[in-house]
Structures are given as C-alpha cells and as structure tokens.
C-alpha cells in the first residue's frame, strides 16, 4: 500500500511539469527537468515492479494457506467419521457389553495435525481472529472430551462444529464471504453448538 501511494505521489509531481503555468519554467530548465522526469520515471517503474511482486507473493501465500486449511478440514473430517461410526456402534450394543474397555481399545483420534497447521506463520498471521479463537477453543474442548465413552457424543459434536468453522474460514479466504458475514455465521454456528452441547459460549456481539 505504501509503495502504491508513493507511486501516485511521484506521478503527480511529474505531472506538474506539463501544466501550462509551468511551461516557460520547464523550457528554461529543460536539462534539469528532463533529469528529474527520468528519475521519477525510473522510481515509478521500480515501485510498480515492487507492487506487482508483493501482490503476486500475497496471492501465492493465500493459495498456500487455503491448501493448508483444506488439509485441516480433511484431518478433522477423518476424525469425525471414525468417531461418529464408533458412537453408532456403541449405540447398537447391548447393556452387558463392557463399553469402557471397548472404548479404550478403540479410542477416537484427535485431529492433532490441526495444531501443526495453526502454528505455521502463513496460517497464524492470515487467519481471521474469530476463526482462530473458535478453532483453538474447540480443539482444547476436544482434548477434554476424548477420555470416556460417555463423552463421545459431545466429542462428535465438537468435531462437526470444528469442521464447519474451518470451512467458513476457507470460504472467507476465497472471497466468498466478507468479514462481517464470517463473523455473523461463525457466531450463529457457535451459539448453535452451545445450545446442542450445553457448553456456554460468550459472543462478542453487543447486548
């Protein structure tokens, strides 16, 4: 942005030479004016090149971030599918089955790869504040809900919500949602999660 502003300033300064009221002055100092215009043109060229380079780098970084976020979605999705299938299996068992033992022999996986993605600079500096907060809170909650079979339904709910939070962030990074839309949809998602799970979620919306 700074380079863009500087480019505009230099172009404006160079443009003064061509105004009628400065024509005679420009003629009297043709050599100096030509030198200044050449210098300005060179600086403008350099600044334009820097702008293009920064834009290209920013677009490449955003594309890489979206790939990482999609990888995070897949990671959570795998954990969700396994956990949901495990919960459905437990629901079909009779009361005499030792579910506690069965659970500890087949514990659902934590999407730990998600933590590795979040700490990458390309993600941590570009992800929206609301999504980062929700992902961190849900990840912490997931670790506390993976210990017993009784908590499995809540764990499944956390994973499902976590996946939706990440999908919203991907839509935001792709430009399909603006910041306000992301905030509203994220808030609705977390409030619905709170109602279905019994976990208190405090919004940042004014009362």
TrEMBL record:
Entry protein name: DUF4239 domain-containing protein
Keywords assigned by UniProt, alphabetized: Membrane, Transmembrane, Transmembrane helix
Stretches that traverse the bilayer: 33-53
Source organism of this protein record: Pseudoalteromonas holothuriae
High-level lineage: Bacteria, Pseudomonadati, Pseudomonadota, Gammaproteobacteria, Alteromonadales
């Amino acid at each position: 942005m700074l380079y863009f502003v500087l480019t505009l300033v230099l172009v404006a300064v160079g443009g003064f030479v061509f105004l009628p009221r400065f024509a005679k002055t420009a003629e009297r100092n043709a050599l100096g004016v030509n030198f200044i215009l050449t210098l300005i043109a060179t600086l403008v060229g350099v600044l334009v090149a820097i702008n293009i380079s920064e834009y290209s780098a920013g677009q490449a970084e955003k594309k890489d971030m979206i790939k990482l976020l999609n990888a995070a979605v897949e990671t959570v999705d795998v954990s969700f599918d396994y956990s949901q299938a495990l919960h459905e299996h437990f629901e079909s068992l009779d009361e005499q089955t030792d579910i506690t033992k069965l659970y500890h022999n087949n514990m659902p996986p934590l999407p730990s790869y998600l933590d590795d993605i979040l700490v990458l600079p390309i993600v941590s500096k570009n992800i929206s504040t609301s999504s980062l907060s929700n992902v961190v809170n849900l990840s912490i909650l997931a670790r506390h809900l993976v210990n017993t079979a009784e908590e499995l339904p809540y764990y499944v709910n956390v994973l499902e919500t976590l996946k939706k939070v990440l999908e919203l962030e991907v839509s935001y990074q792709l430009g399909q949602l603006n910041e306000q839309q992301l905030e509203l949809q994220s808030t609705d998602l977390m409030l619905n999660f709170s109602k279905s799970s019994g976990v208190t979620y405090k919004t940042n919306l004014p009362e």
